[in-house]
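Q: Entry one of two.
A:
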Amino acid sequence: MPRQCRMRPMGPPRLHVRPRRSAFGILRSPFRFAAVPDLSPRACRLGLCAALLLAALAGLWRLGTPPLWLDEASSWYNVSGSWLHLWDRAVQGEDSGGLLYSALLKLWSALAGTGEATLRVPGVVLWIATIAVIARTARLVWNRRAALLAASAALAHPSLLAAARQARSYILLCFLAALVLHALAGYMTERRRHRLCLLAAASLGAAATHVMGVFVGLGAASGLLVLGGRDRAAARRAALVAAPALAFAAAWAVLLRDRAARNLASFWIPGTFFSNYLAIGVLLVVPLAVACLWLLWRDPSPRSRTAVAALAAFAAPVALGPAIVSALASKGTHLVQLRYALSLVPLGVWAAGGALATLPRRLAAAATTLAIAVSLACGVGKQLYAPVTRAGHDIRGAASFLSSTARPGDIAVIEAANNWMPLAYYGAWTAPLEGRDSIWRVITGNGGQSAQTGGTGTLETKGERTIWLVRFSRRTAAPPDLLERATLAGRFGTLSILTVAPPKS
């Protein structure tokens, strides 16, 4: 008798899905709790398009409503003349210690003009590009879900939104830092020469954009050195990557040495060294550290530890850069400010995207949605869309008042001194007063091209002139006798204009 075969009952086939091996090995399934499936290509594309569209709406809405504040007016003045004028302003350190942003803005303004919204459009475009690069980097390292979450984290970061809506170089620096991060991630995935070329080019661009950009180049070299491990050629590759940025920074420092020293003599930043570093730590460093620790906890493999160590090596010079420059600056001056460390944001939101991708889908979606809503609300709360500057200055109203009330030849004492630029942008032109400090200006009626100067005589002997004291802050360097004779002529938000009575005979 032939042996009877016992048939196994048929059931649904069991599928063995091999998890996608990421470059860093962080999101390997199964997780310590239920594994989260990846997004489909179509869902990822739709999600990224929605994130980029929301970024465009948040960046472009009421873009021309807030008036230009001091730094933005400086950007306008840099590009308002010839290329020689732009160069002269750059070597005075008036483009954040760089040249690249002013050059790009001049090319753009030659085509589109110099209106408030027009000057700020490049920043919004760079913001969108930064989000796209961060998403692409997360997709390269992890998966589509991490890419969408990293883009959402970049959209939710309030510092990026504020930087994008300004005609300043900080958002360009963030974009270049994102490119450096993308090149580092790509080099770990596939060690190609073009990745090193992108690293060197983006690092050089960062150094040419901002005085703090050289630390992006140092961070790129440090991260590359960590990724190289025990490879004997790692140090040589790191040196080649950092060399263009370091060479530019050295040449630029020699060129700007004397003029930068004069600028720093009157330069001041609100807040103390320690309070400003506390803000950098809370808003930029701590989120990055938390995301990295979470990723290490989810996957403590050697490859994951190497990746996080490279990220930390990249972040350390950027975070310490303001302190290093402050140590080299004049005594009593510090250059620690949140926006000077914004290059940490692409690193933090990229790591946050990977960390969020390990959470259950609904929890991650709820967290990012809440973060985006809070960020937009914070932007409204910080007057990003208001008709006054974030410091509360109604510069349009003040400039209109001076233009209609003051006469050519009157004296304007403007504090702080460089605030003559936003006033000039809105039509209240002034020129330096000969023989006086930089806060003393002469009101002109011809677009600032020439001015009647006060000579070397004292102002008190020129009774036909009215003195206007324009105060942008409570900090003052005006003579006490001038303040005693000043009476309020108009208040424009937190900006006040006072008239000074002639001295008693």
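Q: Entry two of two.
A:
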Amino acid sequence: MAFTDRSPIIRKHGQGSTDRTKELFAGVLLGALIVTLGLRAVLSIDALAPAIATLLFTFGAATAGFALLCRRNQTRTVWLDIAGVLTFVGVAISILIEPDQMVRLITLSDQPD
């Protein structure tokens, strides 16, 4: 009977995934963490959240740009997924930024803090 033949359904034990999605995503997040820790030593606490959000948007744009250069559809999809996650995290961090922080970053003031 045709419905008892499950060979296309069952994955063979010798086959593994050829893409390195988890390692790639972990590497991108590790790079963002290293840059964030470096920025923490340089920037003030008020400027850290906008800098991290901008950094994640930049990483997401660079990842999407690299995805457009990929020729294989499976690899392109993985890179675009990672770019989407980085953009989503950047949006989530930018929600936490208070408007007063952005105003202090943009305007120059001669008043002491």
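A: Comment on entry two: The chain has a mean pLDDT of 77. DSSP finds four helices and no strands in the chain.
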